[in-house]
Design goal:
The chain has 245 residues and is of the alpha+beta class. It folds into two domains: 17-109, 5' to 3' exonuclease, C-terminal subdomain (DNA polymerase, domain 1); 114-238, Cytidine Deaminase, domain 2, CATH 3.40.140. The chain contains nine helices and five strands, in the order αααααααββαβαββ. The protein has helices spanning 26-33, 40-48, 57-67, 72-77, 80-84, 91-110, 121-132, 169-178, 199-215, and strands at residues 139-145, 151-159, 183-189, 219-225, 236-238. A hairpin with a 5-residue loop joins strand 1 (139-145) and strand 2 (151-159). The relative contact order is 0.09.
Length: 245
Amino acid sequence: MYPESASSSHLPPPYLIAEMPDRERPRERLVQRGTDALSDTELLAILLRSGPRGRSVLQLAGDLLGAFGGELTQLADASLTDLCDVRGIGMAKAVEIRAAFSLAGRLAEAHCRQGTRLESPAEVTRLMRERFRGAKQEEFHALLLDTKHALLRDHVVTIGLLDRSQVHAREVFRIAIRESAARVLLVHNHPSGDPTPSPQDIACTRDLVSAGKIVGIPILDHVIVGKRNPDRVRDYVSFREENLL
Protein backbone atom coordinates (compact mmCIF):
# COMPACT_ATOMS: atom_id res chain seq x y z
CA MET A 1 0.00 0.00 0.00
CA TYR A 2 1.37 3.43 -0.91
CA PRO A 3 1.96 5.68 2.08
CA GLU A 4 -0.37 8.57 2.68
CA SER A 5 0.92 12.06 2.02
CA ALA A 6 2.84 13.16 5.08
CA SER A 7 1.89 16.81 4.92
CA SER A 8 -0.97 16.57 7.40
CA SER A 9 -0.04 13.46 9.38
CA HIS A 10 2.51 15.38 11.49
CA LEU A 11 0.04 18.07 12.50
CA PRO A 12 -1.26 18.07 16.08
CA PRO A 13 -5.06 17.57 16.41
CA PRO A 14 -5.99 21.23 17.09
CA TYR A 15 -4.11 22.47 14.01
CA LEU A 16 -6.67 24.35 11.88
CA ILE A 17 -6.34 24.90 8.15
CA ALA A 18 -6.54 28.66 8.73
CA GLU A 19 -3.33 28.35 10.78
CA MET A 20 -1.49 26.29 8.19
CA PRO A 21 1.09 27.82 5.85
CA ASP A 22 -0.41 28.32 2.38
CA ARG A 23 1.90 25.71 0.86
CA GLU A 24 0.47 23.01 3.18
CA ARG A 25 -3.23 23.75 2.71
CA PRO A 26 -4.99 21.01 0.68
CA ARG A 27 -6.52 23.34 -1.92
CA GLU A 28 -3.26 25.16 -2.53
CA ARG A 29 -1.30 21.90 -2.72
CA LEU A 30 -3.76 20.52 -5.26
CA VAL A 31 -3.34 23.62 -7.43
CA GLN A 32 0.44 23.49 -7.19
CA ARG A 33 1.09 19.72 -7.27
CA GLY A 34 -2.06 18.02 -8.54
CA THR A 35 -4.41 15.50 -6.94
CA ASP A 36 -1.83 12.68 -6.79
CA ALA A 37 0.11 14.65 -4.17
CA LEU A 38 -2.85 14.62 -1.75
CA SER A 39 -3.97 11.88 0.61
CA ASP A 40 -7.53 10.54 0.66
CA THR A 41 -8.13 12.58 3.80
CA GLU A 42 -6.98 15.79 2.15
CA LEU A 43 -9.13 15.23 -0.93
CA LEU A 44 -12.14 14.59 1.31
CA ALA A 45 -11.33 17.77 3.23
CA ILE A 46 -11.52 19.78 0.00
CA LEU A 47 -14.89 18.22 -0.76
CA LEU A 48 -16.22 18.90 2.77
CA ARG A 49 -14.89 22.51 2.74
CA SER A 50 -15.35 23.19 6.47
CA GLY A 51 -15.34 21.41 9.79
CA PRO A 52 -17.52 21.83 12.87
CA ARG A 53 -16.74 24.63 15.28
CA GLY A 54 -13.36 24.24 16.92
CA ARG A 55 -12.22 21.39 14.64
CA SER A 56 -10.48 21.51 11.28
CA VAL A 57 -11.98 20.06 8.14
CA LEU A 58 -8.95 17.75 7.99
CA GLN A 59 -9.97 16.30 11.35
CA LEU A 60 -13.53 15.87 10.10
CA ALA A 61 -12.32 14.17 6.92
CA GLY A 62 -10.12 11.83 8.98
CA ASP A 63 -13.03 10.97 11.28
CA LEU A 64 -15.28 10.35 8.30
CA LEU A 65 -12.83 7.99 6.61
CA GLY A 66 -12.08 6.27 9.92
CA ALA A 67 -15.77 5.66 10.55
CA PHE A 68 -15.78 3.41 7.48
CA GLY A 69 -12.64 1.44 8.21
CA GLY A 70 -10.32 3.86 6.47
CA GLU A 71 -11.51 2.46 3.14
CA LEU A 72 -12.86 4.64 0.34
CA THR A 73 -14.79 1.64 -0.99
CA GLN A 74 -16.76 1.40 2.28
CA LEU A 75 -17.31 5.15 2.32
CA ALA A 76 -18.57 5.01 -1.27
CA ASP A 77 -21.16 2.38 -0.26
CA ALA A 78 -22.41 4.35 2.76
CA SER A 79 -26.01 5.53 2.82
CA LEU A 80 -27.07 9.06 3.68
CA THR A 81 -28.13 7.83 7.12
CA ASP A 82 -24.75 6.17 7.71
CA LEU A 83 -22.92 9.35 6.71
CA CYS A 84 -25.06 11.53 8.97
CA ASP A 85 -24.17 9.28 11.90
CA VAL A 86 -20.64 10.70 11.75
CA ARG A 87 -20.27 13.71 14.06
CA GLY A 88 -19.97 16.86 11.97
CA ILE A 89 -21.65 15.43 8.87
CA GLY A 90 -25.11 16.87 8.25
CA MET A 91 -27.50 16.06 5.45
CA ALA A 92 -26.02 18.71 3.12
CA LYS A 93 -22.50 17.29 3.37
CA ALA A 94 -23.83 13.72 3.16
CA VAL A 95 -25.63 14.54 -0.09
CA GLU A 96 -22.49 16.12 -1.54
CA ILE A 97 -20.44 13.02 -0.65
CA ARG A 98 -22.99 10.69 -2.25
CA ALA A 99 -23.10 12.89 -5.35
CA ALA A 100 -19.30 12.85 -5.66
CA PHE A 101 -19.10 9.07 -5.50
CA SER A 102 -22.03 8.70 -7.90
CA LEU A 103 -20.24 10.91 -10.43
CA ALA A 104 -17.10 8.81 -10.01
CA GLY A 105 -19.13 5.67 -10.68
CA ARG A 106 -20.72 7.17 -13.78
CA LEU A 107 -17.31 8.22 -15.05
CA ALA A 108 -16.07 4.66 -14.61
CA GLU A 109 -19.08 3.38 -16.54
CA ALA A 110 -18.36 5.90 -19.30
CA HIS A 111 -14.95 4.28 -19.76
CA CYS A 112 -16.68 0.91 -20.20
CA ARG A 113 -18.52 1.75 -23.36
CA GLN A 114 -18.91 -0.37 -26.44
CA GLY A 115 -15.59 -1.06 -28.14
CA THR A 116 -13.54 -1.57 -24.96
CA ARG A 117 -10.97 -4.30 -25.56
CA LEU A 118 -10.87 -7.00 -22.90
CA GLU A 119 -7.61 -8.92 -22.97
CA SER A 120 -7.27 -10.10 -19.37
CA PRO A 121 -9.24 -10.93 -16.20
CA ALA A 122 -7.85 -7.76 -14.61
CA GLU A 123 -9.38 -5.67 -17.42
CA VAL A 124 -12.71 -7.47 -17.02
CA THR A 125 -12.65 -6.74 -13.28
CA ARG A 126 -11.76 -3.11 -13.85
CA LEU A 127 -14.67 -2.86 -16.29
CA MET A 128 -17.21 -4.33 -13.89
CA ARG A 129 -15.97 -3.23 -10.47
CA GLU A 130 -17.97 0.00 -10.34
CA ARG A 131 -21.05 -1.76 -11.68
CA PHE A 132 -20.95 -4.18 -8.77
CA ARG A 133 -20.00 -1.66 -6.07
CA GLY A 134 -22.61 -1.73 -3.31
CA ALA A 135 -24.62 -4.51 -4.98
CA LYS A 136 -26.55 -6.58 -2.44
CA GLN A 137 -27.45 -9.36 -4.87
CA GLU A 138 -25.48 -11.47 -7.31
CA GLU A 139 -25.57 -10.30 -10.91
CA PHE A 140 -24.58 -12.70 -13.69
CA HIS A 141 -23.39 -10.96 -16.87
CA ALA A 142 -22.36 -12.15 -20.32
CA LEU A 143 -19.90 -9.79 -22.00
CA LEU A 144 -20.24 -10.25 -25.74
CA LEU A 145 -17.05 -9.71 -27.75
CA ASP A 146 -16.08 -9.45 -31.40
CA THR A 147 -13.14 -11.26 -33.01
CA LYS A 148 -10.70 -8.67 -31.60
CA HIS A 149 -12.03 -8.99 -28.05
CA ALA A 150 -13.79 -5.62 -28.25
CA LEU A 151 -16.97 -5.33 -26.19
CA LEU A 152 -20.17 -5.47 -28.21
CA ARG A 153 -22.60 -5.57 -25.31
CA ASP A 154 -22.90 -6.22 -21.59
CA HIS A 155 -25.91 -8.53 -21.20
CA VAL A 156 -27.38 -9.10 -17.72
CA VAL A 157 -28.41 -12.74 -17.63
CA THR A 158 -29.78 -12.99 -14.09
CA ILE A 159 -29.95 -10.98 -10.86
CA GLY A 160 -30.36 -12.32 -7.35
CA LEU A 161 -30.13 -16.04 -7.96
CA LEU A 162 -28.97 -18.29 -5.17
CA ASP A 163 -29.14 -21.38 -7.38
CA ARG A 164 -26.64 -21.06 -10.20
CA SER A 165 -28.42 -23.88 -12.07
CA GLN A 166 -31.01 -21.28 -13.09
CA VAL A 167 -28.48 -19.64 -15.42
CA HIS A 168 -29.60 -21.19 -18.70
CA ALA A 169 -27.38 -21.49 -21.74
CA ARG A 170 -30.20 -20.29 -23.97
CA GLU A 171 -30.26 -16.93 -22.14
CA VAL A 172 -26.54 -16.48 -22.74
CA PHE A 173 -26.25 -17.66 -26.33
CA ARG A 174 -29.55 -16.35 -27.68
CA ILE A 175 -28.28 -12.80 -27.23
CA ALA A 176 -24.76 -13.75 -28.33
CA ILE A 177 -26.08 -15.13 -31.62
CA ARG A 178 -28.34 -12.14 -32.17
CA GLU A 179 -25.44 -9.72 -31.60
CA SER A 180 -23.10 -11.77 -33.84
CA ALA A 181 -20.67 -12.20 -30.96
CA ALA A 182 -17.51 -14.16 -31.65
CA ARG A 183 -16.73 -14.89 -28.00
CA VAL A 184 -18.30 -14.55 -24.56
CA LEU A 185 -16.84 -13.60 -21.20
CA LEU A 186 -18.87 -14.56 -18.14
CA VAL A 187 -18.66 -12.41 -15.03
CA HIS A 188 -20.59 -12.19 -11.80
CA ASN A 189 -20.13 -10.70 -8.35
CA HIS A 190 -20.03 -12.15 -4.87
CA PRO A 191 -21.59 -9.52 -2.55
CA SER A 192 -19.92 -11.25 0.40
CA GLY A 193 -16.62 -9.99 -0.99
CA ASP A 194 -15.01 -13.42 -1.26
CA PRO A 195 -14.53 -14.25 -4.98
CA THR A 196 -13.88 -17.94 -4.37
CA PRO A 197 -16.08 -19.95 -6.79
CA SER A 198 -18.71 -22.26 -5.34
CA PRO A 199 -19.31 -25.80 -6.65
CA GLN A 200 -22.44 -24.42 -8.35
CA ASP A 201 -20.37 -21.71 -10.05
CA ILE A 202 -17.97 -24.33 -11.38
CA ALA A 203 -20.70 -26.69 -12.59
CA CYS A 204 -22.62 -23.87 -14.27
CA THR A 205 -19.51 -22.61 -16.02
CA ARG A 206 -18.62 -26.03 -17.41
CA ASP A 207 -22.18 -26.43 -18.73
CA LEU A 208 -21.95 -23.06 -20.48
CA VAL A 209 -18.51 -23.88 -21.90
CA SER A 210 -19.95 -27.10 -23.36
CA ALA A 211 -22.90 -25.23 -24.84
CA GLY A 212 -20.56 -22.66 -26.36
CA LYS A 213 -18.65 -25.39 -28.15
CA ILE A 214 -21.88 -26.67 -29.65
CA VAL A 215 -23.03 -23.29 -30.98
CA GLY A 216 -19.55 -22.22 -32.03
CA ILE A 217 -19.20 -19.26 -29.63
CA PRO A 218 -16.48 -20.07 -27.10
CA ILE A 219 -16.51 -18.96 -23.47
CA LEU A 220 -13.16 -17.23 -22.95
CA ASP A 221 -13.34 -17.00 -19.18
CA HIS A 222 -15.57 -16.65 -16.15
CA VAL A 223 -14.48 -13.93 -13.72
CA ILE A 224 -15.92 -13.63 -10.22
CA VAL A 225 -15.53 -10.15 -8.73
CA GLY A 226 -15.32 -9.76 -4.97
CA LYS A 227 -14.11 -6.83 -2.88
CA ARG A 228 -10.69 -5.49 -2.09
CA ASN A 229 -9.26 -6.90 1.11
CA PRO A 230 -5.78 -6.57 2.66
CA ASP A 231 -5.79 -10.36 3.17
CA ARG A 232 -6.34 -11.07 -0.54
CA VAL A 233 -3.85 -10.23 -3.26
CA ARG A 234 -6.66 -9.76 -5.80
CA ASP A 235 -10.36 -9.04 -5.58
CA TYR A 236 -11.27 -11.45 -8.38
CA VAL A 237 -10.91 -15.05 -9.50
CA SER A 238 -10.43 -16.07 -13.13
CA PHE A 239 -11.58 -19.56 -14.03
CA ARG A 240 -9.09 -19.62 -16.90
CA GLU A 241 -6.19 -18.71 -14.66
CA GLU A 242 -7.30 -21.32 -12.12
CA ASN A 243 -7.73 -24.00 -14.83
CA LEU A 244 -11.41 -24.39 -13.96
CA LEU A 245 -12.84 -24.08 -17.49
